[in-house]
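Researcher: Please translate sequence to C-alpha cells.
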Amino acid sequence: MYVVECKCIVKGYAEGEPIISDTPINFLTMIDAENGEIKDPNHNLYGKTLRGKIFVFPNSVGSSVGAYMLYSLKKKACGPLAIICSNRMDITTASGCAISNIPAVHLKHNTLPQVIRNSRALTVDGEGEQILIYQN
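Model: Translation complete:
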C-alpha cells in the first residue's frame, strides 16, 4: 500500500476502484445525466461510467452548471464516490462536490503519480488529507 498526500476540499471518506482521465471534463455536456456514463465520443473514457468509482482527472471545464450535474448524479445514485483532481480543484467541481457531499481532494504536487495509475483500489481520506493506494 502507498500513501499520497492531498489537499482536502470537501471532507469525507470513500473507497473504490479508480477511473482515471488525463483530460479535463465538462460535467454538463460530456456526462449522461441518467446513468453517469461519459457520452462524448472524443473523450478517452467514452462509454465508461463514473457510478461507484473514484474519479481521478485534472479539472473540469465549461459551465458552472456542471456543479448541478454532479448533484443530479449523486441523487440518482450514479455519480462518483469521490473526486481527485490531479491538476487543480476548480470552482465547478468543488461546489458540485460540496452540495452533493462527495469527498473531494486535489494532489499537492499537481502530478498524477504512476502508482495511482497502476492501482486497483483507492481510499480517499479527506480529513486525513491522504489517498491510500492499493496495487494490483
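Researcher: Any highlights?
Model: The chain has one domain: 2-135.
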